[in-house]
Task: inverse folding
């Protein structure tokens, strides 16, 4: 996981509010004094203030009452967790959607740092603790989640009257896009990082093309595939180590049925996982096929996670796999180079990772609708990908009828939410200028702000997201 270097953010943050008139500052200070009471006054909102770890911010944990079914709001409720980093009610608000759990720590996304704004991190429905009881899985849809965000935005706009920007990475970038599609007027701009667009779930040839050409080092690609084959050749030895590790942790394999299925799924993940979260410079760390089984197992565990497909490893991601198998789609590389050694290739799909008592039916039109909207109607959107990230093999594209929207690819980068800082200078300046314009920020100090410093950090749970 990359981290941006430390730098001048503290100075830039201070500069960002320079020039504010004394009377306006006094009014803001007075408003901030009662922000806790104003938040508590929102119907359906409970609020707890926590100790802030970010200079210039107050930290609030919110629970907001949401209908399980927005089409039938009288048929049950759940509490959705939202973490608010409050700077000032006259600054822009950044809506950060993780698409998964909300990390229980403070962090600033790139857009938040650039606009010197407030940030809310919204937990996706069905992720713990934002779980409807009982869980009505048919309500785990992109429209229901987008409507969660719509209702929340409407409530918080009673306090935050400035411009709103949405952002997120991976499934969070997808979530921000879906929200913009269904409620395009909720936010003034969207920055979606590394957001896959599996518009045709039956055609995954883009992933095969990606793995044939990713990076600039053919030897690295060969070494990774050779090690995958070696793992399968040492199946008995590797599975013995997986079994021992699971027993020590008290973990089980009931959902996927066996350690053998779990092992093969993690092997099929291996090449993908390397490029998703590691840079080409790390190819030197790939063990040779002649390495000891202990060394190979340790590296396999580092990259793929030997216990990823235990019941306990899958539990927190069941809502994602459910959505992948019902609306989002999933990648299916061909794995031709592994065929003589695979036994369970057909299990490499979301149905394998969701308990069998949860029904799943795939809707092939859900992503077609999103893709068509982005191509024809996207407005004030930036899609940013890492060149070496497998998820970018099927990206969003904007068509001639989209307005003020662009797609960017950061050379040599991977699955990250810190890609504006890594873009070529001209593109970095362009997307930064667009973001500031959408957010209504025109201060030269803001345009010069460096995307570095201890307060600008990656979503701390992004690296925990599943591969498939």
Result:
């Amino acid at each position: 996981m990359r981290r941006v270097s430390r730098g001048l953010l503290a100075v830039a943050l201070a500069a960002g509010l320079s020039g504010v008139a004394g009377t306006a500052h006094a009014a803001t200070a007075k408003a901030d004094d009662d922000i806790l009471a104003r938040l508590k006054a929102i119907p359906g909102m409970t609020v707890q203030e926590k100790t802030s770890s970010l200079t210039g911010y107050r930290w609030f944990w919110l629970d907001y009452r949401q209908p399980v079914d927005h089409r039938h709001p009288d048929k049950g409720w759940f509490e959705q967790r939202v973490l608010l980093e409050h700077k000032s009610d006259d600054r822009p608000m950044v809506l950060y959607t993780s698409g998964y759990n909300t990390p229980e720590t403070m962090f600033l996304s790139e857009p938040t740092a650039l606009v010197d704004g407030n940030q809310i991190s919204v937990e996706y429905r069905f992720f713990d603790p934002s779980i409807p009881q009982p869980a009505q899985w048919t309500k785990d849809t992109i429209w229901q989640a987008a409507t969660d965000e719509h209702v929340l935005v409407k409530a918080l706009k009673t306090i935050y009257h400035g411009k709103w920007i949405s952002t997120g990475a991976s499934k969070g970038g997808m979530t921000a896009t879906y929200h913009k599609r269904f409620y395009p007027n909720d936010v003034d701009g969207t920055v979606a990082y590394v957001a896959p667009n599996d518009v045709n779930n039956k055609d995954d040839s883009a992933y095969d093309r990606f793995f044939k050409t990713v990076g600039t080092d053919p030897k690295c690609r060969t070494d990774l595939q050779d090690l995958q084959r070696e793992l399968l050749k040492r199946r008995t030895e590797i599975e013995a180590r997986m079994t021992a590790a699971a027993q020590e942790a008290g973990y089980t394999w009931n959902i996927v049925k066996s350690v053998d299925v779990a092992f093969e799924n993690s092997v099929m993940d291996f090449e993908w996982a390397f490029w998703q979260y590691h840079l080409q410079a790390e190819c030197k760390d790939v063990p040779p096929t002649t390495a000891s089984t202990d060394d190979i197992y340790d590296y396999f565990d580092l990259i793929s996670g030997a216990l990823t497909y235990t019941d306990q490893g899958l539990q927190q991601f069941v809502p994602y796999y459910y959505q992948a198998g019902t609306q989002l789609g999933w990648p299916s590389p061909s794995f031709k180079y592994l065929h003589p050694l695979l036994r369970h290739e057909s299990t490499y799909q979301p149905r394998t990772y969701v308990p069998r008592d949860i029904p799943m039916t795939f809707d092939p039109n859900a992503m077609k609708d999103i893709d068509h909207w982005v191509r024809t109607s996207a407005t004030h959107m930036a899609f940013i990908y890492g060149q070496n990230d497998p998820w970018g093999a099927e990206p969003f594209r904007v068509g001639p009828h989209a307005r003020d929207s662009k797609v960017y690819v950061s050379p040599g980068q991977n699955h990250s939410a810190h890609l504006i800082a890594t873009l070529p200078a001209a593109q970095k300046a362009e997307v930064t200028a667009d973001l500031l314009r959408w957010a209504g920020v025109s201060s030269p100090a803001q345009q010069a702000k460096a995307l570095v410093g201890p307060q600008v950090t990656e979503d701390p749970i992004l690296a925990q997201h599943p591969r498939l």
